[in-house]
Write a structure and sequence with these properties.
Helices cover about 50% and strands about 10% of the residues. By secondary structure, the chain is mostly helical. It has 2 domains: about 90 residues, no CATH class; about 110 residues, no CATH class. Strand 2 and strand 3 form a beta hairpin. The radius of gyration is 17 Å and the shape is globular. The protein starts with a helix and ends in a 7-residue tail after the last helix.
Amino acid sequence: MFLAAQTVLAEISPMAARDVALNVRYVAYIDYQSWTDLEDDEYREIGQSISSHLVPSCCFFSGHSFISIDRLVEGLFHEALHKKLSNTLVAFPLLNSTFASSTSKRFFSYWNVDTPWNSNLWEFDRALYAYHVYVHLAVLYDDLALIPHKHFPESIVRIQLGRCIERATALGNWILTEGRSSLTDDGMGFVKMLSQHMPVRT
C-alpha cells in the first residue's frame, strides 16, 4: 500500500511524490493490542501517523492509516513534509539562535483533543511544522478539486480542502503575529512565502 500511495501521489503531483522520495527513507508500522477492536471514529491514544525530528528520515504508521488509499496518501505526504521541514531547519537558520521550544509562545490547537500526553497548546516550532503541512495539503486538495482523482471522492476533497485552509489560516495568522521573537528574517520570509501559496477559495 505504501508503493500504491506513492504512485497515486505522483499521479496527483510529481513534486509532492518527490518530497516523499527525498525526505523519507524508512516507514515503520506501529500497533497495539486493542487496535483492531476500536471503531473507525473512536479516539486513539497513538497517532494515525507520526514522526519526530529525533528519528531522521523515518515515519511511523498505525493500522488506521491503511483503511483507505486516500488516507494513506495524505498521511505519507504529511509525514514527509515534517521530515522536509526538519531537514530545512538543519540547512537554514529559520529559528533564532536563542529559540527554546520549552519557553516559546503557545498556539491553541482548537481542533485537537487535549490529553496528558498530547497537549493542544502547541510550542511555536510545532505550530510552524503544522502550518508547513496544512499549506501543502491545502494546495494538494485544491489541485484535486480542479483535476479529480479516482481515489479521492469529491466529498472528501471538499471537506479536507476546507479543513486545511481553515487550520493553515489560523496557524499562519498566529505565526505572523507571534513569531517575530522566534524567527530569523529568513524564517519570517519562509512563512510569508508559504502564505503566498495558500488557495484562495474555500
